[in-house]
Design goal:
The complex is a heterodimer of chains A (about 350) and B (about 280). Chain A has helices at about 1-10, 25-45, 50-65, 70-85, 145-175, 185-200, 205-215, 220-245, 245-255, 260-295, 300-310, 315-344, and strands spanning about 90-95, 110-120, 130-140. Chain A has about 350 residues and is mainly alpha-helical. Chains A and B meet through helix 1, helix 9 and helix 10 of A and helix 3, strand 6 and helix 5 of B.
């Protein structure tokens, strides 16, 4: 037998010089690249990619001082200028606070006098004349920031509950949507259909419908995000189950274990790292989207954002955007650590 | 080829008239593409025997093993374990008495040695225990015993299976198989991916551990030297048929030549699949 092993090379029917190792690309690959390039050129025209590049180029040139002005630079500059300075204080007219005790102001607050000039029509001269009135404001230096942070906490709660709902809904969807675990073709198609539907419906639209049913507030928000997230998690959970190494699953099946036990003992340990990653991504996405669906009255910081934007209070808008950014950034740091700990 | 009568006599000589533990009656397995992996296999294996199924790749030895625990469904024929005929109704019951050791170990690589071994009881404990990974105390103690029995140490318990060498991984596979004191061990090419020295250690361990609890072992191999060294009995298979059945001392070079005749170029090379594990 050993001799036979050694002789195997020599016994091969064809000498190596007759072998053929094909090139990695052929004319079909070239054709595919050509077709994709043509499609991108066609689409690039429709999407005004050329204009985008020239305007961006101008903006960059004007920013470094080569060119005097640019349309994009002016527009963006105006917008950024409006967002700054960020408003973090909260001010209320004292006249509208009848119960205010001037000798015992709330913590950190102060009273500010502001001269307000208004123009009134003088009935005799028929001219607008300036009138100076002094208004008193109760100012809380961080009042608005605290309010925004409170809204952000509410937004985060919406995101957490949405994630919990997504995970709970997507576990059965993943089981029925995994080709190697679903009981029959009907359950497979049904699960895949539900998952695609949930993913296809934009959360903004789901939230609008749910607001009609559940009223304004957080319920519509986390239900909408939870349903959409289930469409995402159901798909990826299922595909990971399908791709998991079959060998340990066969080993446990051979021991007489049923499907659920095999899933728990042989599949879950394999897919756990990616499940953690997907779920943290959904949490991250829910925090961001919770800010958006607030626009349709589904609670959270988005509702505040929409209100300030509609009343042109861009300083407040700036504060909100900054708080959202810092929250997402912090969440990213935390989730990176959680993943490292769970996966490592 | 041996005559049917000769096979019968050889089996009688080995079995010594005791009621067979496993009995195969005219097993046939034809795959949808028309290939007959088993083409009329009959044999009886007495309790406690270390029976090696020997043959070149594609001879049907893996299929024969997989018939015993129902991983492969028979086209025709009858597999019997004790008094129980393998069918859909008592498949679970038979699987619980049969453990398997796999060529590629089939461990959950990311899971710890301890949970891989405990997974051997996954069909026996309530589902909530499986779900929480919280196995009963007695079982955890038993897991420690079998891990010690296969020559691993307590420090290996929390390690990931992937962090072990190939030989150690197969020891974990054997520990998992022995966890619930099975009556029958099916070892499907258990050493095909191990180097020769480790192969001898692992096969010796498998034989001793099985003997201690008088488990019957059906072990497929393609290395004739290992088969001669470890088997109580050799069943030689070729193209789905039994061409030799007898004790190792009767498996002479003529029998070996018959088993591999005309297959020299296709003989599975042990070296090709070996991985250099320490």
């Amino acid at each position: 037998m050993r001799d036979a092993d050694l002789a195997i090379g020599a016994h091969h029917p064809r000498p190596a010089k007759d072998w053929h190792l094909p090139a990695p690309y052929d004319w079909r690959a070239a054709l595919a690249v050509l077709l994709i390039a043509l499609a991108l050129i066609w689409s690039g025209n429709r999407m005004e990619v050329g204009k985008m590049l020239s305007l961006t180029g101008e903006a960059v040139l004007s920013a470094v001082g080569v060119q005097e002005t640019s349309q994009v630079g002016r527009g963006l500059g105006r917008m950024l200028g409006a967002l700054l300075p960020l408003v973090i204080e909260d001010r209320q007219e004292v006249a509208r606070l009848p119960g205010l005790d001037r000798d015992a102001l709330p913590l950190f607050t102060r009273i500010e006098m502001v001269e307000v000039t208004t123009f009134r029509m003088n009935a005799e001269t028929l001219k607008a004349e300036p009138q100076v009135a002094v208004k008193e404001y109760l100012v809380h230096p961080f009042g608005y920031l605290i309010k925004v942070l409170g809204k952000m906490v509410e937004t985060f709660e919406i995101a957490v509950w949405a994630t919990i709902i997504s995970v709970i809904l997507s576990l059965p969807l993943a089981f029925y949507g995994a080709r190697n675990y679903t009981p029959n073709r009907f359950t497979y198609s049904a699960s895949r259909g539900v998952v695609s539907f949930l993913r296809a419906m934009p959360e903004l639209i789901i939230a609008m419908f749910l607001v009609l049913g559940f009223g304004f507030g957080a319920i519509a928000g986390y239900l909408a995000l939870g349903l959409h997230g289930a469409g995402f998690l159901g798909k990826f959970y299922a595909e990971d189950i399908e791709a998991a190494d079959r060998k340990p699953q066969e080993a446990l099946t051979a021991l007489g274990a049923g499907k659920l036990r095999v899933l728990r003992a042989a599949v879950l340990p394999q897919v756990a790292p990616s499940y953690v990653a997907y779920t943290l991504y959904i949490l991250d996405r829910n925090v961001r989207m919770a800010a958006v669906i607030g626009l349709v009255g589904a609670g959270g910081i988005g509702q505040e954002l929409k209100g300030r934007y509609d009343t042109f209070e861009y300083g407040h808008v700036g504060t909100i955007l900054l708080v959202i950014f810092l929250t997402v950034f912090m969440l990213d740091q935390v989730s990176a650590r959680v993943r490292a700990r769970l996966i490592g | 080829m041996m005559s049917g009568a000769a096979i019968f006599t050889a089996a009688q000589a080995i079995g010594g008239g005791v009621q067979p533990h496993l009995s195969f009656r005219d097993l046939r397995k034809v795959y949808p593409d028309g290939v007959a992996a088993l083409d009329g296999v009959s044999a009886e294996v007495p309790r406690g025997q270390f029976c090696v199924v020997l043959g070149p790749s594609g001879s049907g030895k893996s299929t024969l093993l997989r018939v015993v625990n129902g991983l492969t469904e028979l086209t025709s024929g009858r597999m019997q374990m004790g008094d129980a005929v393998l069918d859909r109704a008592n498949l679970r019951m038979i699987r619980r008495k049969v453990a398997m050791v796999h060529q590629l170990f089939n461990l959950v690589e990311r899971a710890s040695v301890a949970s891989n071994v405990l997974a051997g009881a996954v069909a026996e404990v309530p589902f909530w225990r499986v779900a929480l990974g919280w196995y009963p105390n007695a079982l955890r103690q038993r897991a420690c015993e079998v891990v010690a029995r296969v020559g691993l140490d307590g420090i290996h318990l929390p390690r990931r299976a992937a962090a072990l060498s190939g030989g150690q991984q197969q020891r974990v596979g054997i520990a998992r198989a022995f966890l619930l004191r099975p009556e029958v061990i099916l070892a499907d090419e258990p050493v095909a991916s191990l180097d020769p020295a480790i192969s001898r250690e692992v096969l010796g361990l498998l034989r001793e551990a099985a003997r201690e609890q008088s488990a019957t072992v059906l072990c497929s191999l393609h290395q004739t030297d290992l088969a001669r060294e470890f088997a109580d009995r050799i069943i030689g298979m070729r193209k789905g048929r039994v061409v030799f059945d007898g004790p190792p001392h009767l498996f002479d070079s003529a029998a070996e030549a018959k088993l591999y005749e005309g297959l020299t170029a296709q003989v599975e090379k042990p070296n090709a699949e070996e991985r250099a594990y320490a």
